[in-house]
Amino acid sequence: MAGGITDTGEPYSPFVGLVYMFNLIVGTGALTMPRAFATAGWVVSLTLICILAFMSYMTTTFVIEAMAAANAQLSWKKREKEEMDNSDSSSDYSDDDVMGRGRAEPETKPILSVQRSGPVDHFDIVERIEMGQMASMFFNKVGVNMFYICIIIYLYGDLAIYAAAVPISLMEVACGNHSCSTGGVKYNDTDSCWGSVTRNNAYRIFLAVFTLLLGPFTFFNAQKTKYLQILTSLMRWIAFIMMIILALIRIGKGTGEGRPPIANLSGVPNLFGVCVYSFMCQHSLPSLVTPISDKKRVSALVLADYVLILGFYTLLSFTAIFCFDTALLYDMYTLNFTDNCDVLNIPALRYFLGLFPVFTISTNFPIIAVTLRNNWKTLFHRDGGTYPWVVDRVVFPLITLVPPIVVAFCTHNLESLVGITGAYAGTGIQYIVPAFLVFFARRHLEPVMGRDAVNRHQSPFHQAFWVWFVIIWAVFCLMFVTANIILTDTKK
Where are the stretches annotated Disordered (predicted)? Predict the structure, then answer.
């Protein structure tokens, strides 16, 4: 997942939408990509990231088309209701009443709404319809439950990644080398941090502090985060630009240590998961696209964003793998700048890069936690019923918070956490759900709107072939990743 949830509630221009989408996609996944990029080999990685960027762009256009179809269905129902209300109100008067009123008195309601407002574009995206609501409109009950299970698993993975990333950064800053006597050294978890306290124990202490400070937000609602997100976005881009420039300077001086392999197929499954995770934005598109004031060029905007993001990921990864020795690359890329004074010898900036994930991820954790809690409530929603206070205010927050904290307590291997989350839950959210959404949206609307109805937000990949291609691709990728994990474990 990316840098947070963009939902200002105010209309904005397409250019601002482009910036918001860029910020939305580029987040935690970008910090874990350089190591995955180096592990799989730069030729294989470059090829795979281009393919996955194309696949993600395709499914993004699927979601936008499904959003337009959902708006069309709601608009059509509203129009039918208005016409029924108009016919009911007109039937309340007799012919004598109508003649008695005379022609000078205007009608309070027109017979046809189209006469009042002219031709209506039912496919205009004017109402924000979240993916869960679209699933309820186009899927049956089993499909809706599968959707919520998929997004819940993905959000659990998100929270586990966040819960591990912050303590890792704090532990590396607190226990790392800051004297510049050595650079580019990786420590073991059993190495000492403070006297008899090992680095692993220090990580768990920071995890406990993180849980105590941010965990309580799960029991409340996260509101008015607009300016906080702007601040963290600014910090994120300062950090990314700094890392790219510092790596380019070192490479330009000829002191880069990186000698990445051309290809290493054993690293492909993990790279696949990291890339899927890094291009994830489909679940947040309704909040992002709906407020755009002029949606005529939404498809072009999305394409431009994906080209820019692909270029950024490639630049960040290539500068990283040729600047640092592959064996010394951290799961969290920012940590490579905290104890290597050959790259950065200004202590304040080293601390800034080391602590940068702490600030940005900490602001996103409560938002994702509240989102996951609300999805749990929706999954078990009972028509016409309410939850007891204990269930609503205690049980749901606890089942939201405890599992990711337990996972983070057991492991802090960020590369694996991101890879598994992206490969499984991410594949469902990014590929399978959008493909089925657009497929069933078209089937639902064709009998109502007719085949001649024009959806101006229709995906460029509107042929049925592309929908089935995405589904087959997703199934193949899941089988490949699972087989690789089993084979790897068997060899161990």
Answer: 80-101
Q: What is the CATH number of domain 14-75+122-491?
A: 1.20.1740
Three-state SS at 116: helix
Amino acid in the structure at residue 7:
D
pTM of the entire predicted model: 0.84
Length of the chain equals 492
Of 130, 36, 27, the C-alpha closest to 423 is: 36
Q: By the 8 A CB rule, do 21 and 290 touch?
A: no
Q: How far is CA 67 from CA 34, 96, 129, 160, in A?
A: 34, 47, 7, 30
Q: What element of type H or E holds 60?
A: helix 42-91
Residue 86's Cβ-count burial label (10 Å; 0-12, 13-18, 19+) is middle
Max intra-chain CA distance, the chain: 100
* DSSP bridge partners of 198: 192
pLDDT band at 116; cut points 50, 70, 90: very low
End-to-end CA distance of the chain: 31
Measuring CA to CA, which residue among 382, 333, 367, 380 is closest to residue 353? 333
Would you give the distance in Å from CA 42 to the centre of its chain?
A: 25
Q: What angle do CA 139, 143, 149 make, to 5 degrees?
A: 135
Distance CA 101, CA 486 (A): 82
Tokens of 359: 């600030």
Select the more confidently predicted residue: 455 or 183.
455
Rg of the chain, C-alpha, whole Å: 26
pLDDT 10s digits, 170-193: 988 888 755 565 555 667 777 788
Determine the Cα–Cα distance for residues 11 and 102; give it in Å rounded to an integer. Answer: 45
| Residue whose token pair is 């993905």 | 154
Nearest Cα to Cα of residue 471 among 431, 424, 423, 430: 431
Q: How many CA atoms lie within 13 A of 116 on its CB side?
A: 11
Q: Residue 4, by phi and psi: left (phi above 0), alpha (psi -120 to 50) or beta?
A: left
- Here the tokens at position 310 are 């692909």
